[in-house]
Target: Solute-binding protein family 5 domain-containing protein
Amino acid sequence: AVSPDAIKYDSAKKEWYKVGSGINSMSKGTYSFLFGNFHHGQPMTIANLLYAESFVTEWINKDGEDDKYYDAEYENYHRPDQEIKQGWLLNPDGTITSYFDYNFPPSKERVAANGAPQAYLSGRYMVLPWEIFEVLAELVAVGSESGTVYSFTPGEGVEQVDLLRPSCVKDIRAKLVELKNDSHLPVSLKDYVTAEEAKTGYEAAIKWIDEKGHAFIGNGAFYLEKYDPTTNYIELTAFRDPEYPFTPDYWPSVFATTTVRIDDVDIPAIYLREKEEDLSIKVKVSEVLYPEGTAKIAEGGEVSAMLITPTEELSYQAKFLGAGLFEVIIPPEATKDLEGGSYTILISSSIEGAVPASIASSIVVY
Model:
């Protein structure tokens, strides 16, 4: 059951509300976060997650015929994912418990990924300060200093908002100044961000644009130092912020894994059916540790060979001979009725706990 204290955003009333009792979900997950700083020095907080959630809800719901904060194409893309969400519980320790209607028994990781709170608003997975997202929303819904009509999606008579195009960046900067001067605070964040914090965020974004000439303020390991649209030139600089949450060895450690490597396949080039002999295929296999790239001879595992014919696929298991060597025997019965010609044999190898491998070979049958 979903906690009655879990919250969702109401785009019509412009407020967060508690879902109350009697709500169920297929899954739930509690998520902790490694918040660092954005490239312009401002910290990431829970507010970035709440803003993104409210933004998507706002723009996929048409609250009245004259709702300026609605995009039909945006709705078509995002509604399926948004409808699985049943609410978030903001926990005192800074974690969020997410309730959602998704399940995939073979993989808890996939289930967890589908319920994770997100700080991005589109399929491009760009994480930006909420101030930039809010400016883009206001450019689309309210208008721009230049008079350009902007949209989040392509359409006739409109331009898509663009964090790099100089003309749009100029409008972004002007809107940032406007929001700062108006002490603007998104209604979805009124209980989570102060007016002074919002002002600081607007000022930091304005300073970034003045220094870098673009509005792409991310939070990753590199930031966009220079961009030249004329020559399609970009220059990236390593983000050395002391609050960056990942050490140099973090991601190699996370993605460390063992992979299977098929080193050699010894298969006859030609097989004569009239001899009615077994077709022997020998396969050499190694285990490779990623990302180090070190390899060792396989001490076990499974290897199979699949003979692919026009009418069926015949699979045969190999016998482990030792020291990384396997042998597959395809009996003469498998080839006796085949027409002469070239056939594909797919070799597959797997070892428990390792990423499997496969390779295609061919043989001419006469």
Notes: The first strand starts at residue 7 and ends at 10. The CA atoms of residues 198 and 205 lie 11 Å apart.
